[in-house]
Amino acid sequence: MTSRPDFLNILGDASLQSATYTATGRLMAKRKASADSLPDFEALRDHANRIKRHAIENLDHYLEQLESNVVAHGGHVVWCETGEEVGHFILSLAKQRAAKLIVKSKSMTTEEIDLNERLEQHGLEAVETDLGEYILQLAHERPYHIVAPALHKTRFDVADLFSKRLGVEREVVIENQTRIARRVLREKFLVADIGITGANFVVADSGAVVVVENEGNARLSSSAPRIHIVIAGIEKVIPRAQDLPVFLKLLGRSATGQPLTVYTSILAGPRRAGESDGPDEFHLVLLDNGRTKLLADPAKRESLFCIRCGACLNHCPVYRKIGGHNYPWVYSGPIGAIITPQFHGVLRDPWLPYASSLCGACAEVCPVKIDIPRLLLDLRSDVVQARRNKGSTRVERIAFRAFAWIASHPRLYARLGAFAALLAPRGEDGWLRRLPFFLRLGALQKWTSERDLPAPASQSFRQYWHKQMKGRQC
Amino acid sequence: MNREAMLETVRVALERKPAQAIEKPPAVYLPVVTSSMDQRIALFTAALEELTGRVIRCSSGETACDTVAALIAGKRAIASSASCLKTCGFTDLDGVDSEFSDGAAYRQACSEADIGITSADYALADTGSLVMISGAEESRLVSLLPPAHIAVVPVSRLLENLDELLLRIPTPADRTSSMVLITGPSRTADIEQILVRGVHGPGEITVILVDE
């Protein structure tokens, strides 16, 4: 996770450029078609925004309501401030229950806290079961896209990876690759002790978690092992189960253009009397990990409305060029550009809020109407403020102060202007192709090595004006 | 304790006091649509077929039974405990397992079967979805582990959409530990955006709509 990404690397990679462009373009077209087919799509966005705002602004109330309902259904709620605490909880639970194998379905929240690494360090195997995530786990990479994590991998990459890591024959047909993953992972599902899933929504009035997916791996993770652990950010709470249609209609369409994803699981507590399958234990981990920092800023807390559909990534001209791995954290694209600085502090990756043309496409497609461009501007202002407070721009500050002083003294300004004009290089044919020796310094030299500047005039405008006016009567 | 500390941090961030009352939440948005049964059936069929699911309409339980028998044709199937499957005789068909002595045997059977046969508590017309509520009749794994899924659904259970479902069941969690909406066969597009069906769940889905 470098703070200075190597953009040249990806910009020069023709196949990655085309993969990113094709995939995001396809997702854009699918989103548009499915949104257009729903007459009240815009009304749904407004409703979603209102519900999220209400839930976030009364979060403490809904968290408490949620907890009591989870407990009422026989579940257990774990409150964790950090990823470390989550790791600690899972490790100690696994130890108590003598659990060895964990199956996991796709969850950005667990990516955020590097859960797999934490567990692996303690000898606990956690297997990703979403096909894209499984590929990335074998390749030791992090998601390239919130919704399509392995968007940058080709069938040939996957063929190499499977043959190397799984010891199977090299297979380049995507259908067969999928069969291989199904076979390998099915065995894991049937013997795993613990299943970990994320949650797309957590419903306060029901104590339920809602998981959407297309493959069936989240259903398996939550139903086959004897222990189900859900890891959810505290911002995932919505007040009522009856709010679900609004969000479900928006989420599938915004993410992949599906009216509903293949599986939508509404889960509450462990298996009940009379049910023939399902886990014996149900644990809901509520994670802060910096979310309360976002909550504390009324102007920016709407960043927490995000339902992780990935639409802003697909529509962002910057994401489409630089791809998902050049963003400094697990969340990429416009949403990453607004939440990462708030989680990590704006000075860790100060360029991030500037990684946008402010074209506004992200805000136009956001299903919960987060005003991303406005938040980017706020964060840019925060970057400037933080730098000022840190004093890292002292030279700049002195320079501007000096300039202000000179500029507010007209005679001095005129003299200095005339003096600068004397020193100014003349250039050739009105263009300056090389800087004079005393300006060939560091960044200035680099910046001008590929650029020609118009040559400065030999006299200032004031001098010119005086000469023209001499002997004339107005 | 973490709980108190976290809740307190949230309250401080929001400038709220413990147990402070909340403003009224925004009104629930569940627009009601009503169409005729024929329209719903047409809508359901079109939606599911677009996802490569199959919809077969049968005029009675007996014809449904014959249809399913033909679909099984020598394969191994496992049936859920849905009462409508029992009364129509699906569980007596050749190659169909149902009652199990214990959980392990049931799980084993689910993972070895070629076809899982269930009913569904509801079906949603506009998206072609099945609604599976875990309980004495339906379970989680029968519709999940086998590579093919057949659902026998009386037409009377066909609702308009998700909104109507949540109007009928305002808090699903009060009724079950698991309510799952199934909308078409399991699928992925994780490699090069190429659509592949049957990743972890069934790659084939057939819904038998039974009149009655």
What does this protein look like?
The complex is a heterodimer of chains A (474) and B (212). With 474 residues, chain A is α/β, with parallel strands linked by helices. Among the domains of chain A are: 59-289, Rossmann fold, CATH 3.40.50.10420; 410-469, no CATH class. Chain A is 51% helix and 11% strand. Chain A has helices at residues 7-11, 14-36, 41-57, 59-72, 83-96, 108-112, 115-121, 131-139, 155-166, 174-191, 217-223, 244-256, 291-295, 311-314, 317-322, 333-344, 361-365, 372-390, 394-407, 410-423, 442-449, 461-469; strands spanning 76-80, 101-104, 125-128, 194-197, 201-203, 208-213, 227-233, 237-238, 263-267, 281-287, 431-432, 453-454. In chain A, the strands form 3 sheets. Chain A has a 6-stranded parallel beta sheet with strand order 1-10-7-4-2-3, sandwiched between helices. In chain A, strands 8-5-6-9 form a 4-stranded mixed beta sheet. A two-stranded antiparallel sheet of chain A has the order 11-12. In chain A, helix 3 packs across helix 12 and helix 16 (333-344) packs parallel to helix 18. Chain A is elongated and about 105 Å long. The mean pLDDT of chain A is 92. Chain B is an alpha/beta fold and 212 residues long. Chain B has one domain (38-210): NagB/RpiA/CoA transferase-like (Rossmann fold, 3-Layer(aba) Sandwich), CATH 3.40.50.10420. Chain B has helices at residues 2-14, 37-50, 61-72, 83-87, 103-112, 162-168, and strands at residues 54-58, 77-79, 96-97, 115-118, 122-124, 129-133, 148-154, 158-159, 178-182, 187-188, 196-197, 204-210. Chain B starts with a helix and ends with a strand. Chains A and B meet through helix 2, helix 3, helix 4, strand 1 and helix 8 of A and helix 1, helix 5, helix 6, strand 9 and strand 10 of B. Strand 9 (263-267) of chain A pairs antiparallel with strand 9 of chain B, so a sheet runs across the interface.
